[in-house]
Write a structure and sequence with these properties.
This is Putative DNA-binding domain-containing protein. InterPro entries: DUF2063, DUF2063_N_sf. By secondary structure, the protein is mainly alpha-helical. 53% of the residues lie in helices and 9% in strands. The strands form 2 sheets. The chain has a 3-stranded antiparallel sheet, sandwiched between helices.
Length: 278
């Protein structure tokens, strides 16, 4: 008579093994020697494998629903059939190993990028759109869930920001996500959010984006190269002087970077991209 632990482990293996209940039953038998015939009583209504399949299919469907909820725009763009195909393939290849379903779809953008056909036209945004849109949607979800600046006591900037360069310590809120995209997705996203139409696929173009949350509302903002680099450097722990030195180029020396930063920083703070403390 198998122990309760063995029975639970057997059923979990049957339900969650990539490939379905039959493959799970084979793996469970190899693991602990328990068979379907020995574990499930025969019934006139349905054979044991069919009854186990109800649980295994239900488990997969629940995971699929979570993935579809996390990527609603991608699901609209790809269509139910195509999205379902890639979602199920992802769930088989990257099964859930986390106690929270929030982590389930974290690797979906990379999965779509890795499974893009190898010989694709780099000038055709259609091939890039699924993975790039998935990156955008995942970042949006993470910005919604992570700690934001809502409860942070902001340090008020002085009337002359030049006098506060050394005194102010700039930080990037945990909820901010910086994206280096291959498609300009902000206009595309805005059309998708405000209408039932599917926007035309944008043409490939490097697009730097910050997704932030302020007053519990998530928003996306286009960034210039130096703005993206400054935020990235600050996130890595640099102070504003170190960051401006890292960002500086021959055409944009440190002094100009610092000046532009101090002019832009109050607006960035209002957008929730940075917070300050002494």
């Amino acid at each position: 008579m198998p122990s309760l632990h063995d029975v639970q482990h057997w059923l979990l293996t049957v339900m969650t093994t990539p490939g379905g209940a039959e493959r799970g039953a084979m793996l469970a038998r190899q693991t602990n020697g328990l068979t379907v015939a020995g574990m499930i009583h025969a019934s006139r209504i349905a054979d044991p494998m069919r009854r186990l399949g109800v649980y295994a299919d239900g488990y997969l469907l629940r995971l699929y629903d979570c993935l579809a909820t996390d990527y609603p725009m991608l699901r609209r763009v790809m269509g139910e059939e195509v999205f379902g195909f890639f979602a199920r393939a992802y769930l088989w290849e990257c099964p859930s190993h986390s106690p929270t379903l929030y982590d389930l779809g974290e690797g979906f953008p990379a999965f779509l990028s890795q499974h893009r056909p190898p010989q694709t036209d780099a000038t055709d945004g259609t091939w890039l759109l699924p993975a790039e849109l998935a990156r955008f949607e995942r970042a949006w979800l993470e910005a919604m869930r992570d700690h934001g600046p809502e409860r942070v006591q902001h340090q008020a900037l002085t009337a002359s920001p030049w006098t506060s360069v050394s005194a102010t310590h700039w930080e990037i809120p945990p909820c901010v996500r910086l994206l280096d995209l291959k498609l300009p997705l902000i206009p595309f996203w805005q059309v998708m959010v405000t209408s039932d139409d599917i926007a035309a696929c944008p043409q490939p173009e490097n697009s730097l984006v910050a997704i932030s949350r302020m007053h519990y509302r998530v928003s996306a903002h286009p960034l210039a190269d130096w703005q993206y680099s400054m935020l990235d450097a600050l996130r890595q722990g640099c102070d504003v002087h170190q960051a401006s030195q890292r960002v500086a180029t021959r055409d944009m020396p440190k002094e100009r970077v610092l000046a532009d930063w101090m002019l832009w920083a109050p607006a960035a703070q209002e957008l929730g991209l940075v917070t300050t403390r002494s």
